[in-house]
Write a structure and sequence with these properties.
Length: about 350
C-alpha cells in the first residue's frame, strides 16, 4: 500500500461525491463573485507540466491561479526542458514539486499523474493522462450542468464519439454515476465503444446505461449531449482514424430532433463532429462550458491549497513482479515504478488496464 500525504486529484474516486459537489458549489460561488477570491492564493506557486498539447486546460489552470492572486511556473513543451536530455518523470516532478505548492500535469502515458504523486513533495492534479482520465474537465462539465440544467441528478446524458480513447467521458461516468437518476446513452461505433472497466463500474454503482449506434435515434431522449472528438493521436493506424473520424457529426438537422432544453457540450477542441452552424443555436453550450473551466479550476486549486494534506491511497493492491500489458501505461517507460494490480481482472493501478 502506497499512501501520499497530499491532497492529490488523480482519479474521480479519490474523494466521494460530496467532495465533488462541494467543489461545484464553490466554483459556482466564485463564478458569481470572483472578486471575493482575488487574493485567496496570494504567495502560492502552481507548476504546470504539460507533456502533451493543450489550449484550454493549461490556460484555464493558469488563468485560475492568476485570478486567485497566485503565480505560475512550468513548461508546455517537454522538448525545451530536461526531459529532452532523458530525465525521468520521477526526477522532474520531485524537483518541480519542491519549487511549487501545487503541480498540474498532463501526460500522454496513462497513470503518469499517479506515478508522479508517489514521490512528489506537493499535491498533484491530473490534467489528463493519455486515454485514461481527466478529472478537472469533469469538474467543469459538472459545473456546466449545475448552472445550465440546475441539477446533477435525474439527467439522461448522451456521450457520443470516441468513447474508447476519450478520457473526458471516462471521468464523467466515474463522477456522475454517484448521483441519483443518471442514465447514460453511450453512442459510438462498435470499434470506439466504452471500455469494459467503465461499464462494469457503472453496473457496480447501479447506474443505468444503454448503447446506441445512431445519434439521430438517441438525441430526442437526452437532457445533455456530450460530443467528443475522435482522438487521432491515440490511433496506431492513420487509415483506421480516417475510417472512423466522421461517423458522428452533429448538424442543425439532427439537433432539430433534440429537446428544447437540451444542452450540447463538448470538451473541445472540435474537429468536424459539430458543424459550425450549430454554434448559434442557444442549446450549444461548449464555449460557455470552456469559460466555466476557469472557475472550476479556481475552486479545485483553492480546495487543494486550503487542505493540502488529505492522505491519499495511491496503490492499494499488492505490488507484483509483472508488467502491465497496456503499451501506453506509464510503467512501460518508467521502469523503476512499483507495479500494482487489483481484483479478479488484475487491473493495473496506474492505467486501469485489465491484465487477466
Ligand atoms: C480534451 C482532452 O484533452 O482530453 N480536451 C480538453 O481538455 N479540453 C478533449 C480532447 O482533446 O478531445
Amino acid at each position: 500500500m502506497f499512501t501520499s500525504k497530499y491532497t492529490n486529484v488523480i482519479d474521480l474516486t479519490d474523494y466521494g461525491t460530496e467532495w465533488w459537489l462541494s467543489l461545484v458549489k464553490l466554483a459556482s460561488d466564485i463564478y458569481d463573485d470572483p472578486d471575493k477570491y482575488a487574493h485567496a492564493a496570494q504567495g502560492k506557486i502552481m507548476a504546470t507540466l504539460f507533456y502533451e498539447p493543450s489550449t484550454r486546460t493549461q490556460m484555464s489552470f493558469q488563468t485560475a491561479m492568476l485570478k486567485l492572486g497566485g503565480t505560475i511556473i512550468g513548461f508546455d513543451n517537454p522538448a525545451t526542458s530536461s526531459v529532452a536530455k532523458g530525465e525521468n518523470l520521477k526526477d522532474t516532478t520531485k524537483i518541480v514539486s519542491s519549487y511549487s505548492d501545487i503541480l498540474v500535469m498532463r501526460h500522454p502515458e496513462e497513470g503518469a499523474a499517479k506515478a508522479a504523486a508517489l514521490t512528489a513533495d506537493c499535491p498533484i492534479i491530473n490534467a489528463g493522462d493519455g486515454s485514461h482520465l481527466h478529472p478537472s474537465q469533469t469538474l467543469l462539465d459538472m459545473l456546466t450542468l449545475y448552472r445550465e440544467k440546475g441539477r446533477l441528478e435525474d439527467l439522461t446524458i448522451g456521450l457520443c464519439g470516441d468513447l474508447l480513447n476519450g478520457r473526458t467521458v471516462h471521468s464523467m461516468c466515474k463522477a456522475l454515476c454517484g448521483f441519483k437518476g443518471i442514465h447514460f446513452v453511450l453512442i459510438s461505433a462498435p470499434e470506439l465503444g466504452m471500455p469494459d472497466y467503465i461499464k462494469d463500474m457503472l453496473d457496480a454503482a447501479h447506474c443505468s446505461y444503454t448503447e446506441e449506434s445512431s445519434l439521430e435515434n438517441a438525441i430526442g431522449s437526452l437532457d445533455m449531449l456530450y460530443m467528443t472528438r475522435v482522438q487521432k493521436e491515440r490511433f496506431s493506424s492513420e487509415e483506421e482514424y480516417l475510417r472512423l473520424k466522421d461517423v458522428y457529426t452533429l448538424d442543425p438537422a439532427k439537433l432539430a430532433k433534440g429537446k428544447k432544453d437540451l444542452i450540447v457540450m463538448h470538451p473541445l477542441p472540435r474537429v468536424d463532429e459539430i458543424t459550425m452552424d450549430v454554434d448559434e443555436d442557444p442549446r450549444a453550450m461548449y464555449f460557455k462550458q470552456a469559460h466555466y473551466g476557469v472557475f472550476a479550476r479556481m475552486a479545485l486549486i483553492l480546495t487543494v491549497l486550503n487542505d493540502p494534506m488529505k492522505p491519499n491511497a495511491l496503490l492499494k493492491g499488492e505490488t507484483a513482479d509483472m508488467q502491465c500489458r497496456n503499451p501506453k501505461c506509464i510503467t512501460q517507460k518508467e521502469k523503476y515504478l512499483p507495479r500494482s494490480f487489483t481484483g479478479k481482472f488484475a487491473e493495473c493501478e496506474y492505467c486501469s488496464c485489465r491484465n487477466a
